[in-house]
TrEMBL record:
GO cellular component: mitochondrion
Boundaries of every Clp ATPase C-terminal domain copy: 397-486
GO biological process: cellular response to heat
Positions with biased composition (Acidic residues): 346-360
Residue ranges of the region described as Disordered: 339-362
Name recorded for this polypeptide: Uncharacterized protein
Record-annotated AAA+ ATPase domain positions: 156-311
CDD domains noted in UniProt: RecA-like_ClpB_Hsp104-like (cd19499)
Top-level division of the source organism's lineage: Eukaryota
Species assigned in the record: Spodoptera exigua
Length: 504
């Protein structure tokens, strides 16, 4: 009759429904029985159920057929991560009908996903949200591609260990991987802060307390989440801070793709992707990455010095480089290197279309002689490291990437200024370089965020407090001798006027 068959139930039990509606729980229970069904458990949560879930539970093949013919999605999951097929009787005509349509939907979804991956590869998606880290992105994408296309071991889940300094993009890469694979489904990304598992007894928080202990019925944080979505992307953040007994639990999870919870229930999760992040060897990786950057810059500079001489000879102007050397000596001529500039009307960030930056690769010798001994000394077991498919290295940002980060942070504050205070924020190109100088290799992108807050947002907030900046004004950021200054344009003015905050 035109109703949408995939609308989801919002009833989550009498207590929560009563709190949301401002009613007494007994009144909610009575209305639930009168208006919906008197034979169902009115105290249970049916959050996220669709009409097809109810048809499966009621074993109504006629209702299920009507819903499926009207376009109901048999792969839709409720709040517990279960499809309608989970509630159908076995055997029954209703189950057979739902199973047939489920296979058809899964085949169509797999074909559509394969086509989307072909047109929009994982690397392309990740590079939209992750600044730099080209080698890390390529490593992760290659491993995921093997698994998606059936060229991986189906008996074992995919396990990554992300290494690098804080604020370098490790957690964000895991988030974007989950978004790519599961289309923004929040249940498909499970994040566990392993600093909460530093004590031996806290293993129970992960898999659930054994029978007879407090909290046994609640289950564990990891087992509950994997029971809802066994193919999720699971992030173990700062895994080096966890107790060794917690890592022992992860051994079974990484090796066999299964986990037994506190109730004795076996959870299969071979299709899950497990990502661990750690700051172990962060200083060594940072220093090594800086050395690789310097070597890459030296090679680029060498190519730049050679290229103009070749191009001049090709144009038939022999001897021009010799003439220029009389003026410049050993210095590079002005046209040897093209440096992009930005004014207040160009806020799209540094131009990276020309001369893409060289991808840096961590040598095998560095991995084996420097990083692996640190990992082995901390974790104390080879079997744990042996279950990791890929160790991914996150290197410090290059200068070009820092300029991009600063530009992104300023754009974020420009959007906030416009939405919250009706203030237009603009900046000159030199501001990017001045703020990028505040980069700290140990804190990554967070140091850029803090630099923008200290040197830009603080000044804007002070100007607003002292009456120099009101709604409808424009702010222009300028750079003079490494300092960031403000210029304000009032609503009816045509030009920006520099302001001295100390004199206000």
């Amino acid at each position: 009759m035109g109703a949408r068959p995939d609308l989801q139930e919002r009833y989550s039990g009498a207590a929560m429904a009563a709190a949301a509606a401002g009613m007494h729980p007994l009144e909610v229970l009575q209305r639930r029985e009168d208006e919906f069904c008197s034979t169902m458990n009115a105290r249970a949560s049916f959050l996220g159920w669709t009409a097809l879930h109810y048809a499966a539970l009621a074993d109504s093949s006629g209702a299920a057929r009507e819903l499926l013919e009207a376009g109901a999605d048999p792969t839709a999951r409720d709040h517990a991560g279960r499809r309608a097929l989970h509630y159908a009787r076995d055997p029954s005509p209703t189950r057979d009908l739902i199973l047939t349509h489920t296979r058809t939907w899964e085949e169509a979804a797999a074909a559509a996903a394969a086509e989307e991956r072909r047109r929009f590869p994982l690397e392309q998606r990740l590079k939209q949200f992750i600044v730099g880290q080209q080698a890390a992105i390529e490593t992760v994408a290659a491993a995921v591609r093997r698994k998606e296309n059936g060229w991986a071991d189906d008996e074992h889940p995919l396990v990554f260990l992300f290494l690098g300094s804080s604020g370098i993009g490790k957690t964000e890469l895991a988030k974007q991987l989950a978004r790519y694979m599961h289309r923004d489904d929040p249940a498909a990304f499970i994040r566990l802060d392993m600093s909460e598992y530093q004590e031996k007894h806290e293993v129970a928080k992960l898999i659930g307390a054994p029978p007879g202990y407090v909290g046994h019925e609640e289950g564990g944080q990891l087992t509950r989440a994997l029971a809802r979505r066994s193919d999720a992307v699971v992030l173990f953040d700062e895994v080096d801070k966890a107790h060794p007994d917690v890592l022992t639990v992860l051994l079974q999870l990484f090796d066999e793709g299964r986990l037994t919870d506190g109730k004795g229930k076996l959870i299969e999760c071979k299709n899950a992707i497990f990502v661990m992040t750690s700051n172990l060897a962060a200083d060594e990786i940072a220093q090594y990455g800086l050395q690789l950057r310097r070597e890459a810059e030296a090679r680029a500079a060498q190519r730049v010095r050679v290229t103009p001489a070749i191009s001049v000879e090709q144009r038939g102007v022999p001897g021009l480089m010799d003439i220029l050397s009389l003026f410049y000596g050993d210095k590079e001529p002005w046209f040897s290197l093209s440096v992009g500039s930005h004014d207040a009307n160009d806020q799209d960030g540094p131009d990276e279309s020309n001369d893409p930056e060289e991808s840096l690769e961590v040598s095998r010798n560095f991995k084996d002689s420097v990083v692996r001994p640190i990992l082995k000394r901390h974790f104390g077991r080879d079997e744990f490291l042996g279950r990791i498919n890929e160790i991914v290295y996150f290197l410090p940002f290059s200068r070009q990437e820092l300029l991009t980060l600063v530009n992104m942070e300023l754009k974020l504050w420009a959007e906030k200024a416009s939405a919250r205070h009706a203030v237009e924020l603009r900046w000159e190109g030199g501001v990017l370089g001045a703020l990028a100088d505040g980069y700290d290799v140990h804190y990554g992108a967070r140091s850029i965020k803090h630099e923008v807050e200290r040197r830009v947002v603080n000044q804007i907030a002070l100007a607003a407090e002292r009456g120099a900046l009101a709604r409808g004004c424009g702010v222009l950021l300028t750079e003079r001798a490494g300092r960031v200054a403000l210029a304000v344009r009032r609503p009816h003015d045509a030009d920006y006027t520099p302001i001295d905050l100390a004199a206000l």
